[in-house]
Design a protein that fits this description.
Elements lengths: L11 H27 L1 E5 L5 E3 L1 E5 L2 E17 L4 E6 L5 E3 L4 E6 L1 H62 L4 H59 L1 E3 L4 E6 L6 E2 L4 E18 L11 E6 L2 E15 L2 E8 L12 E7 L4 E7 L3 H5 L3 E5 L5 E6 L1 E5 L3 E6 L6 E3 L11 E5 L1
Parallel strand pairs: 1-22
Antiparallel strand pairs: 2-21, 3-16, 4-11, 4-15, 5-7, 5-10, 6-9, 7-8, 9-11, 11-14, 12-13, 12-15, 13-14, 16-20, 17-18, 18-22, 19-20
Helix pairs in contact: 2-3
Length: about 425
């Protein structure tokens, strides 16, 4: 006879399923209750840098490195080709305007000057001879003209007398005609001589003027050659420091060769390369600060070079007021170049945290300074010392500004002394 079996309620399968559900529920409760502790981290307070958010004047600037240069440099180039014959001064010497620096020699130029001088002397001699001959000829022709004038007056008187005599029948018709012919002949000779004197005067005046122009050209050419010979002695065009002199005795220098340079050392400028990122923000009049021998100096941009090379453009800055006395050409200066005027705003010290967060969040300390919590922020402009706070922080808040590399994923930091 069959027997009815009772159905078991707590089977092994049900017990296993119930145990799994309890484990899952317990895990969920653990995560809910202890999640905050899992995103927390104990940190030694002495290893952190803390900055207090404050309101202060913010001046945006960038650190740049400039090179000291003289305010003006005069380059010395060879005007004429020649061999270095003498050197009168050495590089590094202060020279005065007009002081000889070195002597070049060009034998062909010297010979050319001699030949041109001889040509000029010959032309001047020809001019003088022409003037003498012209004066003598003019005197001779004037004598002839005076003699003819005298003969003409006599012939005219004779003819006038014959007019009266022939009317009274005292002379023959033939004698009267002969007196008329003599008068006409002398008058024609006088007119021809007068024309010859005038024409000769014009011709000789033109000839002398041509000789004078030729002599002037020769003299001008000779002056140029002599000036070129003088240029063979290289002189200082201004007073200043001879910072370079590239010449050796016997060395051949061609026209245009750089011989050296003179710097005006009573004032200096600073040439600064700036990243092209700031080209739209850098303009004339912007100021900068630098420290030399423990003293602060202010500089102002006097010139901006718009050409960009290798991602940089250049500016020149001049010292305002007093200029340092112990700077030298080629010296480098660290300058804080201002990019605008100071504005009062909320600031926090710049630190390594910015590399970890990109300025999107920070760890802010609680009032007791025992814990720090991750809070979102929005930061704006910056300089090497501070960051502008736009949102997320208030004046007086304290923020960890040192590196977040070891706790970048944490939500809370427990600060231990």
């Amino acid at each position: 006879m069959d027997r009815v079996l009772e159905k078991k309620i707590w089977t092994l399968r049900r017990i296993a399923m119930l145990a799994g559900a309890v484990c899952v529920t317990g895990l969920a409760l653990y995560l809910i209750v202890f999640a905050d502790s899992r995103l927390s981290m104990n940190v030694e307070q002495a290893t952190l840098s803390v900055s207090t958010v404050r309101k202060d004047d913010f001046l945006e600037f960038i650190p740049v490195t400039g090179t000291v240069q003289p305010i003006r440099t005069i380059f010395l180039d060879a005007i004429e080709t020649g061999r270095v014959e003498k050197i009168f001064v050495e590089a590094g010497t202060f020279v005065h305007e007009g002081q000889p620096l070195l002597q070049l020699r060009n034998a062909n130029m010297i010979l050319d000057a001699v030949n041109r001088e001889a040509q000029l002397f010959e032309q001047v001699n020809n001019l003088q001879n022409s003037r003498v001959n012209s004066a003598q000829t003019r005197i001779s022709m004037k004598n002839q003209l005076i003699d003819l004038q005298n003969q003409l007056r006599r012939a005219e008187r004779t003819l006038s007398q014959n007019d009266k005599l022939i009317q009274n029948g005292h002379i023959s018709q033939e004698e009267y005609k002969r007196a008329q012919d003599d008068y006409e002949l002398i008058k024609q000779r006088y007119d021809l001589t007068l024309d010859a004197v005038r024409n000769d005067s014009v011709l000789r005046t033109a000839q002398i003027a041509q000789l004078e122009r030729s002599a002037d050209r020769l003299e001008s050419n000779l002056s140029i050659v002599k000036q070129n010979l003088e240029n063979m002695t290289v002189k200082a065009p201004i007073s200043g420091m001879l910072t370079a002199l590239n010449a050796e005795i016997g060395e051949h220098k061609t026209t245009g060769t750089r011989l050296g340079q003179i710097d005006i050392t009573d004032r200096y400028r600073v040439r600064i390369p700036v990243d092209e990122y700031y080209i739209s923000r850098v303009d004339l009049g912007l100021r900068g600060q630098c420290e030399i021998a423990g003293k602060q100096y202010t500089l102002t941009i006097s010139k901006v070079y718009a050409e960009v090379r290798n991602g940089r453009f250049e500016v020149d800055m001049l010292f305002d007021g007093e200029q340092p006395t112990d700077i030298r050409r080629g010296q480098t200066l660290q300058i804080r170049l201002e990019l605008g005027r100071a504005e009062r705003t909320m600031l926090v010290d710049r630190g390594s945290f910015y590399q970890s967060t990109g300025g999107q969040w920070v760890f802010k300390l609680n009032p007791a300074g025992t814990e720090a919590y991750r809070v979102p922020v929005r930061l704006g402009r910056q300089n090497p010392q501070a960051l502008e706070v736009l949102e997320g922080l208030q004046e007086g808040d304290r923020v960890i500004t040192s590196s977040y590399e070891n706790f970048n994923t944490m939500q809370r930091l427990i600060l231990k002394k």
